[in-house]
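Box 4.2: Ligand-aware structure prediction
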Amino acid sequence: MRAPFETDLDASSPNRNLAPITACLDDDGALIVGGCRLSDLAERYGTPLYVLDEATLRAACRAYRDGFARHYTGEALVLYASKANSSLALSAVVASEGLGLDAVSAGEMLTGLDGGVDPARMVLHGNNKSREELALALARGVTVIVDNWHDIELLTALAAARPAASVPLMVRLTPGIECHTHEYIRTGHLDSKFGFDPDELEPVLRHLAGQPWASVSGIHAHIGSQIFEIEPHRDLAGVLAEALRLARSLGHVATDLNVGGGLGIRYTAADDPPSIDRWTEVVGRSVEEACRSRDLALPRLLCEPGRSLVATAGVTLYSLGSRKRIPGLRTYLSVDGGMSDNPRPITYQSAYTALLADRPTAAAQETVTLAGKHCESGDVLLHELALPEQGSGDVIVVLSTGAYNASMASNYNRIPRPAAVLVHDGQADLIQRRERPEDLLRYDTLPTRLTAVP
Ligand code: LLP
């Protein structure tokens, strides 16, 4: 049985749902995800707990793959933007779906590689890559997305130590395309720290054409994140096709065109993002048209979705704790986590949807402010949450937390980060152990002069 809060559940495009595609109610009316009752998971693994539904994640991977198969006549490769949520288990699932991976650090690269992602299907991004990160990419055969001249200088030095080996590269362009999203997550406009300005593209490509070690496989751009508009991606196809034409005219192989990620997801009922199929249709067709009109052989089409692959596969479970009623003003209901496991509300004023794990459909009785437990007044997960009667110890579920929650978690107030489980067909597997307060002391050291007893 489908949970009634999901009126228009769309299994073919998980980014359009509030809940994982396996969400339903059991005979007691309690919420089940991946065949597991959420309150049972909370009891077994403790709270806060990140729960990831494997079926939703796989459905999203397939939606991208199948979408390009339908709407693009050339080859396509989907790279999971692992900044959205990086773990060995997630890397293994996306690799088993035939996806590659986008990494932005040595940590993300190692997580992808150890999770079984083929390095030939991996890219390394970053506007300030370290020599060590670049050396790791070169040693493992990961394609480097060149972002600036500093990258080129470091790569030139590293390549000198590996004569005769060529380095697979793509060049990142700032496409000068505006789109409507939070200013912190917009990257395609010209005032951005990422990528080369359009004016610089030709000098960069000319320079690289003279470097025997450099093998430029293509051009990349990313215009931003949580985007509901389709039009910017049409414009992007033209800009990238033009850049590809230039690269080929200067002698580069330039077989790949990488359009980045950015498709939005549903956080609340008011959000209405396009489907993955529609996104692949617009991107695939636009790239095809842009290339045909320039007489360019069709490139391999790469994209880097993060949020739309994993966000709605995830929910976070919290236990309710204290309550403070301020007559005539509001009632604060506090949970055992907050801004350290989900920094998005305090960082971007992001809205979420939450419900009780065991009575998700019970009629609302009051409106509360769902607060976190951190020493910060702004640590609020949901400002206006209508809830049925509840009490301390009840489990509350925050939906659509699979992306940019675990990966952006901190230890503010020395609060340990939550455990994560992957659920599938009634089975739950622990994929990230819960930190303990003692773990947080692992990297502290006490200068000996401070340990001496006076
Ligand atoms: N490719 C590049 C080069 C990117 O910079 C990003 C995201 C992606 C792909 C994936 O974008 P997605 O498909 O997930 O929209 N922390 C923010 C989001 C930052 C996104 C950064 N770049 C948030 O929580 O909303």
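In the box above, the bound molecule is LLP. The two ends are 69 Å apart (CA to CA).
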